[in-house]
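Quick one:
INPUT:
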């Protein structure tokens, strides 16, 4: 079974910074693309940023230049450094991982989600 554990959320004033961390664990699984999504009250969940195993990144336009996603060499931890935070960044942030399980030429991709960590930015 795969487990994603997020940490680092909290309350911060506008202009401040926070760093989110997510640790993925699971026997016999490989972690492919990992990323962060967020869901604000009354809105749909949206991609914030993701990173492939090769380090390629993708960001939502709203966070470009303010947020940076990174990953450890082992590939099982993903981080989101958030700077210049705005009240509109307030949301529950979810860690996401595409996992691969299999052998030889047969692999199965399954997405997993963390339970979420709250980020509140006050004006």
């Amino acid at each position: 079974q795969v487990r994603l554990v997020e940490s680092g959320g909290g309350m911060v004033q506008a202009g401040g910074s926070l760093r989110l961390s997510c640790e993925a664990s699971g026997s016999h699984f490989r972690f492919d693309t990992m990323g962060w999504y967020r869901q604000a009250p009354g809105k749909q969940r949206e991609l914030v940023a993701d990173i492939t195993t090769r380090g390629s990144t993708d960001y939502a336009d709203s966070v470009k230049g303010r947020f940076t996603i990174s990953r450890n060499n082992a590939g099982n931890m993903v981080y989101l450094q958030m700077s210049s935070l705005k009240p509109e960044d307030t949301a529950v942030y979810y860690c996401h991982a595409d996992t691969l399980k299999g052998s030889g030429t047969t692999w199965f991709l399954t997405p997993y989600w963390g339970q979420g960590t709250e980020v509140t930015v006050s004006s």
